[in-house]
Write a structure and sequence with these properties.
307 residues, alpha+beta, Helicase, Ruva Protein, domain 3, Tetrahydropterin Synthase, Chain A, 3 domains, 48% helix, 19% strand
Length: 307
């Protein structure tokens, strides 16, 4: 019996495009023969999945799940928007979200974990779905939030069914206060995050590089307006305050009341329940964000869906 090394598995993955566990099984079945392993994968229908692996998957679904003090969000991509309405795909994404609740946000750990209710791993389940549904798919990213006390709240925008849709948000609130009140506030903040897409929770959390870029632009604008150098610094700091109100969660105007900042709204609820409230985490996933999509027309999209 030939030794099935990691290098051999990697070679077969590159050659076939199939998943790691499928490649390992194929090599085991064929005593380490690469060409025979490729044929074995083809006979199992996994070559179909491999052929599709180069196609751009920029659609799909986000799933969010939250319970008490923990929550998870995942994005699973496919090639067309049609797949998001496929019940098998929906069940796949929901199942992966439940695995993320147990495994955390590490994609590799999720892929190698058992998919609920069967013997397949998540990676194998995705590969099977590629063969069945006929589109390239992948688990793109995952994240989890938790607090020792308080709540993790979720919200799904443009939901296609419970917990599944196009924009999913998690918000973690740390507090010793009434969890029912915290859950309501958490969902409101999650809805706010869906609408405004803040870059950070607080000014201190904001990417220093983003602040410096904004500072440089504002400084140049001030100089081009002919303002003297001695007042440019004050102008820039004033305009940075407006920048913070645009991109920092706690500084933004709360969309729920349209008057208070998010920080002020949180402080009002904290006073009501008699316990401080801290936003310790937020995650906002929108399907396909940051993926370069192929230009196509409607007819091409239909053809891709049935190929």
């Amino acid at each position: 019996m030939a030794a099935i090394t990691a290098g051999l598995v990697k070679e077969l993955r590159i050659k076939s495009g199939a998943g790691m566990m499928d490649c390992k099984k194929a090599l085991t079945e064929t005593d380490g023969d690469i060409d025979a392993a490729v044929d074995w994968l083809r006979t199992k229908g996994l070559a179909t999945a491999a052929k599709k692996s180069g196609r751009v998957a920029a659609e799909g679904l986000v799933a969010v799940t939250a319970s008490g003090t923990s929550g998870a969000v995942v994005e699973v991509n496919a090639e067309t928007d049609f797949v998001g309405r496929n019940e098998d795909f929906q069940a796949l994404v929901s199942g992966i979200a439940s695995v993320a609740m147990e495994q955390g946000g590490d994609v590799d750990a999720i892929n190698t974990a058992a998919f609920p209710g069967g013997s397949e791993t998540v990676e194998q389940k995705i590969t099977s779905a590629i063969s069945t549904i006929g589109e390239n798919m992948n688990l793109r990213r995952a994240a989890t939030l938790s607090v020792d006390s308080g709540v993790v709240a979720s919200y799904m925008h443009n939901a296609v069914t419970s917990g599944l849709g196009k924009i999913g948000i998690l918000v973690a609130l740390k507090s010793e206060g009434d969890t029912a009140v915290l859950a309501t506030l958490g969902k409101q903040i999650a809805m706010h995050v869906a609408a405004t897409s803040p870059q950070s929770i607080s000014v201190d959390d904001l990417d220093p590089a983003a602040v410096e870029r904004e500072r440089a632009v504002l400084s140049q604008q001030a100089r081009e307006s002919g303002k003297p150098e001695e007042i440019i610094g004050k102008m820039v700091e004033g305009r940075l305050s407006k920048f913070y109100k645009d991109v920092v969660l706690l500084e933004q105007t709360f969309v729920v009341d349209g008057e208070n900042s998010v920080k002020k709204a949180i402080d009002l609820v904290a006073k009501e329940i008699g316990s401080p409230i801290e936003v310790t985490g937020m995650v906002r996933y929108a399907v396909g964000e940051g993926i370069e999509k192929e230009e196509t027309d409607f007819a091409a999209e239909v053809a891709a869906a049935v190929s």
